[in-house]
Amino acid sequence: MKKFLRLVSPPPSRPASTMTSSTTTTSTTTDSATDSARTHYDTPTTDTFYTLIWGGSDIHTGIYTSPTDTIRTASDRTVSAMASTLASTGVPILPHHHILDLGAGYGGPARHLARTFGCRVTCLNLSLLQNERHRALNRAAKLTHLIDVVEGSFESFPREVVEKAPFDIVWSQDSFLHSSDREKIVAEIDRALTHFSSGRVIFTDLMASRDAFEKQPALMKLMMDRLGLTSLGAVEPYTQAFVRLGFVNWGYWDGVANFGVHYQKVAEELERARKGKMMKGLDEAVLEKQAMGMRNWIRAAEMGCVDWGIFCFGR
Asked: What does DSSP assign to residue 195?
């Protein structure tokens, strides 16, 4: 790695009293965010990229405590940190809990939660390719009795999810950036989460920092165009949206220092794979687009244009 950013530790054991503030969002395209996300992830070369380079189990930002941490180790640490955060709010995950994972990808977090805590997890995800691999990995892990995989959008929960409600915990990692209307997500979560005081929402997201679009408009547009994004979220609007619906704000843990580290790791793994012919026969244009995307996200992190961290809200 060319540069290792400041190392950070998992979230504190008590909830923060305030949330970091950020208010910038922008629109860059009129395309459906749902269609763009499905098209992006269901491209065979892109799916291979996430399977071989990102680890094929998790597709989210990791938490790094050492320069030698692997992508898989750091990704697992994020899941553990989120589970610990829930416990710090008085709601440790228990076997009787039913968790809804929004944008579940290949199901790494769901398998971790089901295996570790014995809880049930319903996974909502758009990508057909990811869902197929997710189900196969669940079968291999002998966890199909605890994990259900449902195809659909988190902006409008399908009947298969609605019929399973209420859920004890709603969970998501780095998925809401694909939404064009995050208010809808919050409303759907409100509809599906138990109204008992033990109900919790915990998630991470890739967001724009304050004034990012004013400071680096061209770079931000490049980042968003690669994924077909119509907007990026921010800390303060997320907080306001949940509080307006009566949620208790348990705090936001700022983990943005991990973001640049993670994407640098991914970029280096991709470069090694391309040089080593691991990606031979795949669409080179798509691979170059992925590599450029990684470089743009790394630049944005170095310039202070992105935010990433763990949100937690409760009833």
From this structure: -
Euclidean distance between the first and the last CA atom of the chain, given in angstroms as a whole number: 42
User: Is residue 308 within 8 Å of residue 258, measured between CB atoms?
Assistant: yes
User: Under a CB-based contact definition with an 8 Å cutoff, are residues 277 and 246 in contact?
Assistant: no
In whole angstroms, what is the distance from residue 150 CA to residue 271 CA? 34
Cβ count within 10 A of residue 284? 12
Q: In this predicted model, what pLDDT tens digit does every residue of 201-236 receive, in sequence order?
A: 999 999 999 999 999 999 999 888 878 888 899 999
**232-274: pLDDT as tens digits:** 999 999 999 999 999 999 999 999 999 999 999 999 988 888 8
The predicted model scores a pTM of: 0.88
Q: Phi and psi dihedrals of 68, rounded to 5?
A: -90, 0
Amino acid, res. 2? K
Q: Give me the residues paired with residue 172 across strands.
A: 102, 203
- Burial of 66 by CB count in 10 Å (0-12 exposed, 13-18 middle, 19+ buried)? exposed
**CA dist., res. 193 & res. 162, Å (int):** 10
